[in-house]
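Hey, quick one: can you model this chain's 3D structure?
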Amino acid sequence: MADIDLNNLEEISSGNFEGSNWEPIGYCNNASGNYCRAPTGQLFNTRFDGNDYTISNLIINTTERRVGVGLFGVVAIDKSISNVHLRNVSITAPNGLSVGGLIGVGAVAFSPTRGVKINSVSVEVTHISSLRDEDSAYVGGLIGDGRAAEISSSSAIVNQLTITSSIDENSGIGGLAGSAGGVTISSSHWDNETLSFVNLERGADIILAEGPGQTTPALKNPTANPDDGTFPGIYADWDNGYCNPTTGEYMTVADGDSEPDGFQRAWNLGGTNDYPVLNCFPIFTPAEQRAAITRVLAIPTP
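Sure thing. Here's the predicted structure for all 302 residues.
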């Protein structure tokens, strides 16, 4: 695999994804509400390792009523998506349920305690729009329906999320995950100031599934303590994450334990005006990651 610019693909000229350059991988025909009810053969049912490459300019336009819209539409339980970076994601799915930049649906209803595993993934979203009507709607920068997912060492920078009407207690929206019941999130972040919500009230009606996120100043003021190398403030728990720069493997060590051989700190906190980025991407340096974030945030939203 290498870096992929989806603008180099031929635009889909007919069917449910006319005007797109990508059709989601994995879907189900037996949906009920926003659930995929059984592990049918249409699900993405294997492990994906992107080897730290970048996929840019993902465009999905669909009016199909569909459960699961994203780079991956529906991913089977216990499968993992890791070491991949999405840049300039734009998804317009006014009849879509469970929509995310990386994954639409990462778990199925019959197994509420076993979900997809997401590790070392970064997503930069220009715009995602989705449905809210008589069914539940889950919209997230990283994953739409992320129930029981395990998310680690990942980030989402999102310009805009749009819902076609107000959401309620049966729906969710979030920078990382739209629905996050039972989810485990570690060493991951989203920016709640770069993200704007459209066509819904920002208040009690919004269920920010993984918490309220952090402000831009808080995220961009992460300089490590120069005396002992510990991480400050909201990043205090992040200094236990380590990665192998050769294999991309991620692990967490207990407080007081020594750095494992062949590993280094997973997060590069940068200076007082930088977002945290990941260290173990030899072909996508911290400086290049921050430059990509700046480019995406400068793109006008629809």
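One thing worth noting: The chain has a mean pLDDT of 76.
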